[in-house]
Amino acid sequence: MASTKKVAVVTGSNKGIGFAIVRALCKQFDGDVFLTARSEERGQEAMKALQAEGLNPKFHQLDIDDKSSIDRLHDFLKEQYGGLDVLVNNAGIAFKQSSTAPFSEQATVTINTNFTSTVNVCNKLFPLLRPHARVSNVSSFVSNMGIKKCSKEIQARFKDPALTIEGLQQLMNEFVSLAQTDSHQAAGWPDSAYGVSKIGVTVMSMVQQRQLDAAKKDDIIVNACCPGYVDTDMTSHKGKKTIDQGAETPVMAALIPANAASPRGQFLSEKKVEVWG
Description:
The chain has helices spanning 16-28, 40-51, 67-80, 103-125, 141-149, 152-158, 165-180, 193-214, 243-254, and strands spanning 7-10, 32-37, 58-61, 84-89, 129-138, 221-226, 267-269, 272-273. By secondary structure, it is α/β, with parallel strands linked by helices. An eight-stranded mixed beta sheet has the order 3-2-1-4-5-6-7-8, with helices on both faces. Helix 4 runs antiparallel to helix 7 (165-180) and helix 5 crosses helix 8. 44% of the residues are buried.
């Protein structure tokens, strides 16, 4: 029989900001907190580190680029808990500035993981969201910089209140397609695959909230959030914030009190709503 306990899942959480989000949720969330990782071995190492601090997270393997892995997590949550109360979409990648990979490859890989795979996680897990569930989509300040660098026409398409997830996917596919021939900038896109991927995550959050509200879902809130410039492998440890400081805004979004009017479907930075775009 499924447990009535509340449950939280943090994607990509064996290190960096995701690890710190699990640590904070273990201290602040009234329920089970799942650390996830592509690698069982790295996940278990992260678990041991948190257990050594006296915390009690749980582990489930998850590779967001593998649909069968997402399916297994869905089935486990449904069977063991009958639902989901907090989802933090933290998993993501970024090519280093020193990377010699062609831009076409960087665009394909980055959009696929940071946007498309995150959409796949949401599509599979959103049906499990219980009343008052919270979704915290980890985006970045570069999404705000990126949207400002888009042409007025592309900006308007991203900000269209009638935009659907399918329409957003089409926009992201257009960028990837243009990147294959290095014609993305001429077509009005910024020259940052990571930036565009995080525009996708931010806009996805806004669209998801509109769709949930239209379906009259009971107080389910989705927000995009920026952790800030954090000292992690992804930033080559150039970030000024610690991982625990970086976790603060995503955790705040994950723990918004029941029936809060705001923030919902917005972009959060430094624990407050920021004007986006």
